[in-house]
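hiii, so i know i said id send this last week but things got crazy w the move. better late than never?? heres the sequnce for the chain we talked about at the cafe, plus the structure i predicted for it. fair warning i was half asleep when i ran it
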Amino acid sequence: MSFIINLLVSALVVFGLANILPGVSIKGYGSAIIVALVIGLLNAVVKPVLSFISIPVTILTLGLFSFVITAIIILLASAIMGDSFHVDGFWYALIFGVVLAIVNSIIGGMLGD
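okay and structure toks below
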């Protein structure tokens, strides 16, 4: 049940951010649910691989390169989703990913995860 609640909250945040940020567009709330699922899957599968490969760069940048990895994950999700979810560029993906992570952490903490 917690997975479904987290998915729906993430989809709500994705939908809200897409309406706030000018460089991010989404078709509807159904697409937002799919985007949240795709981002979750990419975070579970691709992000650990990218993090492992980029350990030297992450150490040199004192961990700031992890933000770049987050932006890459968002851009990959945009490429996978096609027309239903689109991010215009790296900076919008970076802002989107950081705000999504912060809001999900806050809401997850309030829900007791």
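btw The two ends are 12 Å apart (CA to CA). thought thatd interest u
miss u guys!!
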